[in-house]
Amino acid sequence: MKYPVKSFLYLLLLLFALSCGDDPVVTPEPEPKPKPEPEEPGTEEPAPLQDWFSWEPAAAADADKVLTIRFKAPKDTELYGYTGEVYAHIGVVSEGTWKYVPAEWEENIAKCRMLKIEGEANAWELELTPSIREWFNSEETPVNKIGIVVRSADTKKKGNKDGKDFFIENITDSKYKPFQPGVVRSGSMPAGLQHGINMIDNSTVTLVLYDKDKYGARKDFAHLVGDFNNWTLSNDEQSQMFRDDAAGCWWITLTGLEPTKEYAFQYYLGNSGKEPFRVADPYARKVLDPNNDKYISPSTYPENLTYPEGAIGMVSVFKIQEEEYHWKVTDFEKPSRDNLVIYELLLRDFTESGDIKGAMAKLDYLQSLGVNAIELMPVQEFDGNDSWGYNPAFFFAMDKAYGTDRMYKEFIDECHSRGIAVILDVVYNHATGDNPFAKMWWDASADKTTANNPYFNVDAPHPYSVFHDFNHESELVRTFVKRNLLFLLEEYNIDGFRFDLTKGFTQRSSTESTASNYDASRIAILKDYNQTIKAVDPDVYVILEHFADSREETELSNDGMMVWRNNNDLFKRSAKGFQTDFSPVYYGSSDRPVNSLVSYMESHDEERTAYVQLSEASTYIKNNLGVRMSLLSANAAFFFTVPGPKMVWQFGELGYDFSINENGRLGRKPIKWDYLLVPERKELHDTYSTLINLRMEHGELFNATSTLSWSDGRYLTLSSFGKAKNVMVIANFTDKTTGGGVSFPQTGVWHNYLENGTTIYVPSPTMNVELPPYSFKIYTNFEP
Q: How far apart are CA 131 and CA 188, in angstroms?
């Protein structure tokens, strides 16, 4: 037993007093016991019941014996005072992955229910009986570590400290022992290989895994496990990889393979004395997910999704002879960016099937609407199946939740046959923890990448971070991104890229107030990527979500890139019935190059203007669908008639009025194709189509030589070079009839573009035009 220092001194004093004859005995006041701070116990003899977790036997649990796990909730935790049922989400932790988990996170089963401990408040226990191994039915997997999270029945309350997983790590397994790697085999890698999967011939593949941290250190061992060695780890030539220190790589060559067979595999890595782990190949074109693939419908992904027995975590797949796709359209001419109308589309929320097949069935609709480009929100393999896609894990694999590799190609090919370009939204600012580069240098206790990770920062230097932040000043990252861009261009005939969060492509520390400041390093990085793309095809669109210093955006635009121009606030204001100055929609209102701004009224990231009408407009507007749609039509008139690339968020043409926060910001949204049957909404759709058609049929109005003039959102004049063609847009966004002089660029007959056959005569350059509330007109000096 250990005594406090003060108590020990009192004891000496007492002995001294007793040894001094008749001196009085000093009896010290008892030292109060300090209240222990609640903390997770270690593995050294925890008390039978204490705050957080304890277990019995405590010193050395045995995989073939009973284990009782107890949990007591401290006062400041979510389960303190909770009287409902409590469940354990629990599993055997092997090679860094939870296995043999009896129930899904939201599944309540009797086996995992923790029972109240009699006589103890806020305390529960779970008995793993007749033995740990049998309770988990863990078969031949060594059981040395258990992970556990205690939660309420509705999953809303977690008991664990800071919500983190807790681990019991002192379990002895005398029956099954972990694999012991052999001595490292050194060998020079064959010339001409790339990191990842290298097809040598019809029966031979060489796999190459880069493993050298920021300081030059490597893992102690690397093995291969997969279909070709029956998922069995060994120290033979089928499993143990060679090490080439000069190249910083592990590598292995597999022979005797079947050219048309799919092979699944993983890399098994680790350091002596630490838990080994597995990763999939970061360059794999297909990965298998043990947790999410089972929820993908066979109609969406009719190819093989069988997860191999013996695998742990994400699995990479290759086939030597991939099915060749024969492109129908081999000479697609990309629409000029001067007249680009992009339809931003989230496959998940666009059709009931939420996949490529569903979007294919709607291409007639998009073609008739008139758009000449589709921008797909991220489709590279992301975590889970239900997502916006900004949580990427594997960049060379298209996400199976939307379809097969061939389906993606068929979709792009079909778009090209209709004159529609396809732009991919790509996410290179960050990746999730399932990304192999993150997992290879990972701090599980902090749930972050480590300081020696050669690809990722531990923490993002900028304030916009999600997941794990790539270091774009690392040559490894730059090489990886450029290789991925070239792959997407060459494999899928992609026409352009919209880069997400490019303001984060920096190593300069910043705050919300300084992140937009001019950054020469960030500019150099983006120019490097742009030049890589343009070397393949100078007409490929490169669009940046940047929102940084005007000088910086101008410099990037001068290099041939485009930047997003957010006009959401302007069009929300006018949609609510206020006269608005729309001049920021036009590139001419900035110092940017011609047609370098991709303007939009809405994007995936902005609140829907039609919803703002319902939530913030006057009662009259809220209660009158026809007025709301008329205001949105007027918005469209002041949007599509402005030169420069334009982007429409899906269903904006139907007045989609569900909030971005419906079902949670990232949650699924109602799919409202029935809006097309509502006359007022159909009229808005037809206005969009007519205005887009105006751009397509009269492109000379939207090039660099066109001129544009404004009058505070009352009217807009658009003229081609020499004023051979002119457009007048006149609107009244208010609740009162307006009049006043409108300056027409020419006198004579003008045609009402939205009412075919209707004309007006303009006798003098300035003419009084009266408009009733919430209405607009478009006039042209040429026939529709």
A: 48
Residue 566, beta-bridge partner list:
600
Over residues 563-581, the pLDDT tens digits come to: 999 999 999 999 999 999 9
- Percent of the chain at pLDDT > 90 equals 85
- CB burial of 390-424 (b: ≥16 within 10 Å; e: otherwise) equals bbbbbbbbbbbbbbbbebbbbbbbbbbeebbbbbb
Range of the domain at 573: 338-405+412-622+644-685
Which of 629, 614, 598 minimizes the C-alpha distance to 659?
614
Amino acid identity at 701:
L
- Are residues 555 and 457 part of one domain? yes
Residue 286 lies in a domain: yes
Locate all alpha helices (DSSP H) within 275-404, ordered by sequence.
347-350, 356-360, 363-369
- State mean pLDDT over 202-213: 98
* Contact partners, residue 61, CB within 8 Å, separation at least 6: 55, 67, 132, 168, 170, 171, 172
- Helix/strand/coil for 293: helix
Q: Does residue 615 share a domain with residue 505?
A: yes
Give the strand pairing for 67-72 and 52-56. antiparallel
Backbone dihedral angles phi then psi of residue 507, each to the nearest 5 degrees = -110, 5
Task: Answer yes or no: are the C-beta atoms of 400 and 296 closer than 8 Å.
Answer: yes
| Distance separating alpha carbons of residues 780 and 685, to the nearest angstrom | 21
Q: How confident is the model at residue 38 (pLDDT cuts 50, 70, 90)?
A: very low
State yes or no: cis peptide before 102, omega within 30 of 0: no
